[in-house]
Amino acid sequence: MKKFNYACLLLAILFSLSSFNSKAQVINLDGNWHFEIDRNDEGVTGKWYNKNLSDNIKLPGSMAEFLKGDEITLKTKWTGSIYDSSFYFIPRLEKYRQPGNIHIPFWLTPARHYVGAAWYQKEVNIPANWKGKHILLRLERAHIETRVWINDKEVGLQNSLVAPHVYDLSTFLVAGKQRISIRIDNSIKKINVGPDSHSITDHTQGNWNGIIGKIALEAFSPIYIENVQIYPDLKNRKARVKITINNSTATDFSGKIAISAKSFNSLKSDKTQEIFSKIIVAKSDSKTIELELPFGKGMLTWDEFDPALYNLDVKLVSKEIKNSKTIQFGMREFKINGNQFLINGNPVFLRGTVHNCEFPLTGYPATTVEAWEKIYRKIKSYGLNHVRFHSWCPPEAAFIAADKVGLYLQPEGPSWPNHGPKIGLGQPVDQFLYDETTRMAKEYGNYASFTMLSAGNEPAGNQVKYLNAFVDFWKAKDNRRVYTGMSVGGSWPVVPNAEYQSRGGVRGLEWKKMPETETDFSSGIAPFKVPFVAHEIGQYCVFPNFEEIQKYTGVYRAKNFEMFRQDLEDHNMANQGKDFLNASGKLQVLCYKGEIEKMLRTPGYAGFQALGLQDFPGQGTALVGVLDAFFDEKGYVTSQEYARFCNSTVPLAKISKFVYTNTETFKAEIALFHSGKTPLKNAIISWTIKNEKGTILAEGNFDPKTYENGNGLFVGNLTFALSEIKEATKLNLEVKVNDTAFVNDWNFWVYPDKKMESSPSIYYTTTLDDKAKEVLNNGGKVFLNASGKVVKGKEVEMHFLPVFWNTSWFKMRPPHVTGMLIQDKSPAFANFPTSFHSDLQWWEIQNRAQVMNLEDFPTDFRPIIQPIDTWFMNRRLALVFEAQVGKGKIIVSSADLGPNLENKPAAKQLFLSLQNYMNSDQFNPKNQLSLDVIQDIFVSPSKEQFKTYTKDSPDELKPNSNQNKVK
């Protein structure tokens, strides 16, 4: 008996000592797991939790990562809508539909694909000293539904796309070897968030099966800190701390709580005093208490400029236990005043990008702080301070990293309830979004960067009623962030109760008359009395970067890029891919600059969410980023160049037009956008006008002035007489804030005001008539203005602005052209200054001009001016080409160029330059063409026409859809 009592006493002491440990004991479950695919969903009835699974896999990871699942075929059942099914029918694409050569154009292609149930199993030795402890199984970012068994006993089922699946195993585990079986099902069941939701869709991360974050068993004292939420109060220099204590023992608990905070990542340091409180928790119960934590005069605040953070230490202490928890947080308040966002009382303009869960190496989101820091620092280097997560919520590491880097985040409920499910109709998604956002607030609510919340993206259903209630629920529940309904396009109904509007409709470039930088969005945002954040601005496409293909060394292959590259080669332009990328990229940057500056000069505009800084690999392949899907630069713009027009401070110029004659005066109103931590005090803003040689033609500065935060702040006016410009010239206006890095610039063009006459040595004509043929046969020169006469290529619609999103997703909705490649070194442009890409002087020449399809021309034929077709068609196009015909020479233009142009100085100057070129010894076209092949451009339609076989279409194109109502 004495020996027994001594043993019991020893065990009690050991248990007490182990319970006294402040941190949880952890068994990491990373590594090898037994595995088996449950294709026929027979594992539960077949009691697979009692058998040894036949295969192996490593976790964290996904099935596709370890080549588990099915080969890709034309019958693969994808998770995601396909709106352009023409790929399955177009004859020239048949070779990409053959077994062994499957190339899916809609998104990246995973190594394997599987939707359904799969089982994961591991045996674990449970220490004897875990007896009586609170034991949790933590599965970070499992996809999607998990069911857990310990040996032959089922623990439960969980379904969350935003938070860890956490199972209480306290009553299931005993000392010794224990078998953990996890059934993971990634199929869409009753809870349908929408197949295009970025939380699950093959358009982005892919519908993977597995667990990708922390996988561990954690043992705690049976009396433990279950949850801590911190609510900063900057005005009163304190934080309200809400702490929940759980007591899973059979006796009442009496002890005390101590809290204190200490800064850890800033040059200045600060810490609070320790605050104590007694607490009593009844047996088998929980209790929540609130404590106030005062801060002193040295309190540090968090924002994008100084992301100062604290660690809150919470200690639960009694004679029996000592339990602690550390929570990262920042002292900040993100509020709204009228139509402005405020960070700690300071107005802030949101310059954001949309993150769509693009992870092309793994096919699933990163769960390490280091990976997210790398992404965020790249985003900040482009002058941005905000990230929206389209219909998904990132893992905890993303919030930790954003806190450190200083970014304002808008995660969303993991749903795009459209194209299938709808909200407000009693479907399971209604409650699921409340459940998921509640989990988000609990798991990530303390992170300073979590400043905004949306229920999801572009819904259908009884939207307004549902989303009004959703916003009201969260406004009453948690004041640490601001709330909108869902992020929507401009034709969705307004949700009146939303604290801010994240919507389209007031965005874009309306360059229908001519490019300018005077207009703004004031009339568009006038109806809104809350902050207006532009939804998914930009979406300006560039040509694919085929050098990117070699980067796909992980789970995904860029089969879409491979197909586009081969198709370009099949159209005899393989050697032009990089030139197309760079030329279209320069136009893309020009368009982003124009749209962002328009918002920056609009008083009261609150921010934008670009789609995106990086490419979107799905929805037909939407190459809308200046960065690729790896967040790498593509080579045509640097972060420093981009940040000239997208930054916390940006000089602006209001300019009525960019093309002048030398009889005019250049005028500009200089303005400033400023969204800094403090006002710009006694700032001197200066300007210079230079020519292409760098010679300063004019300069000046404005009197020192203090500029508060605001958009389109008036600085002053400048004028510059152009009468001394005697030749066609490109000039540059640069404006900078002296003694800072903030600078911006704009090109403009000046042409001599000369009377245009047709050269007598050149036959100018608008039709390929008999006289033209006679001139060519006799060795003469012909200029053919074919504007409005083109048949072969008539179906290709060219605007100055490039392709929007991509032509596949919208079933070849125009425009079809994404910029032009210009042979700028040709002597044809000796009197027309140009680069190799579309620039603003080209607008009056290029916008809405016809293009010519050169499908029957020699394979090596290259036009002087080459519109870049959508990469889904890769037609060889021309706006202006030259050739030898018979004994003569010809230039053909489908742009309206000629001697009788009025109010088109750029077109007039280009015609003059081409005419001078034709009259020079340098006019010696490389290619010989027959008259018939040129004549055919005006007679025969293109042999290759786009045909859609798709019966369905995106909601935006359905004639009776709410989204198609007149804006």
Q: Major sheet: size, sense and barrel closure? A: 6 strands, antiparallel
Q: What is the beta-strand fraction? A: 25-35%
- Helix/strand structural class: alpha+beta
Average pLDDT for all residues: 94
Q: Note the total helix count.
A: 13
Shape: globular
User: What is the total tally of β strands?
Assistant: 52
The termini sit apart by: 88 Å
The proportion of residues forming helix, as a percent range, comes to 10-25%
**Ranges with pLDDT <50 over ≥5 residues?**
1-21, 953-967
How are the strands of the biggest sheet laid out side by side? 3-2-6-12-9-10
Q: C-alpha Rg, in Å?
A: 32 Å
Walk me through what this model shows.
Helices cover 15% and strands 30% of the residues. It is α+β, with helices and mostly antiparallel strands and 967 residues long. Strand 20 and strand 21 (322-329) form a beta hairpin. The N and C termini lie far apart (88 Å). The model is unreliable at 1-21 and 953-967 (pLDDT under 50).
Briefly characterize the structure:
This protein is an alpha+beta fold.
Write the layout of secondary structure elements.
Layout: H1 2-20, E1 25-28, E2 31-38, E3 55-59, E4 61-62, E5 109-110, E6 117-126, E7 134-139, E8 142-143, E9 145-150, E10 153-159, E11 165-168, E12 176-185, E13 210-211, E14 215-220, E15 223-233, E16 238-247, E17 253-263, E18 275-281, E19 285-294, E20 310-317, E21 322-329, E22 334-337, E23 340-343, E24 346-348, E25 350-355, H2 369-381, E26 386-389, H3 396-405, E27 408-410, H4 428-444, E28 452-453, H5 463-477, E29 482-483, E30 501-503, H6 522-525, E31 532-538, E32 556-557, H7 559-570, H8 577-600, E33 607-611, H9 639-642, E34 649-654, E35 659-661, E36 665-674, E37 680-683, E38 685-691, E39 696-701, E40 705-707, E41 710-721, E42 729-737, E43 743-751, E44 762-765, H10 770-777, E45 781-785, E46 817-822, H11 843-846, E47 852-853, E48 865-869, E49 877-878, E50 880-885, E51 888-893, H12 905-918, E52 928-929, H13 931-935
Parallel strand pairs: 25-26, 25-33, 26-27, 28-29, 30-31, 31-33, 35-43, 44-45, 45-51, 50-52
Antiparallel strand pairs: 1-14, 2-3, 2-6, 4-13, 5-32, 6-12, 7-11, 7-14, 8-13, 9-10, 9-12, 15-16, 16-19, 17-18, 17-20, 20-21, 22-23, 23-24, 34-36, 36-41, 37-40, 38-39, 38-42, 42-43, 46-48, 47-49, 50-51
Helix pairs in contact: 2-3
